[in-house]
Design brief:
Number of strands: 4
Distance between the termini: 104 Å
Number of helices: 5
Largest sheet: 4 strands, antiparallel
Helix content: 40-55%
């Protein structure tokens, strides 16, 4: 009788262990099925077009910068573009290079015809009233994932409009301006 009791205890123990093992395996299957697949997440993130985010960033960056007297545009531009625009602003001024030297230095990287030589960043006026971006339309998305926005920057007080094509690049979670074609 004692042997039958031990045998019965072992059978019950083994059955309960098996049931527990089965329920653990079922729980893992349920977890795996409810978890999004890595490939799905990657495809989803790559399909998200961040042009609207870049557009909102660009508008607020321009408007906020002019509210703060546009003292540090190099904070939201690539280092290369900030250097280029600094050189363009200083063409034919004391300590600046002449036009030919500027073109020679930058012609391989930027279209110097639209650099805004001799004028400040984004607008040609030295004094401004209230700067607003009155139009910002995605013009092109490059093969590298950069955005070109056709932009109208307007000085509201004197009603002066500046037509610009602005290239915005993404570096990680940051957006930066990498070129501004200044048409007027």
């Amino acid at each position: 009788m004692k042997k039958v009791g031990i045998l019965l205890f072992n059978i019950i123990f083994l059955v309960s262990c098996q049931e527990n093992k089965v329920s653990e395996q079922q729980a893992e299957v349920i977890k795996a099925e409810s978890r999004p697949k890595t490939d799905t997440i990657t495809k989803l993130l790559s399909s998200v077009d961040s042009s609207e985010i870049a557009k909102k960033w660009l508008i607020s960056t321009i408007e906020d910068s002019f509210k703060n007297d546009m003292v540090e545009y190099d904070k939201f531009c690539t280092k290369k573009y900030a250097e280029y625009k600094s050189d363009a602003t200083g063409v034919d001024m004391d300590g600046g290079m002449d036009e030919n030297a500027f073109i020679k230095k930058w012609k391989k990287e930027y279209d110097t015809k639209y650099s805004g030589m001799g004028v400040g960043f984004m607008i040609s006026g030295q004094d401004w009233d209230t700067i607003k971006v009155t139009n910002c339309t995605l013009k092109n998305k490059t093969t590298h994932g950069d955005y070109i926005f056709q932009t109208i920057v307007e000085d509201i007080g004197p009603k002066v409009k500046y037509n610009r094509d602005i290239k915005v690049i993404r570096l990680g979670k940051l957006f930066l301006i990498d070129d501004v074609l200044e048409y007027n």
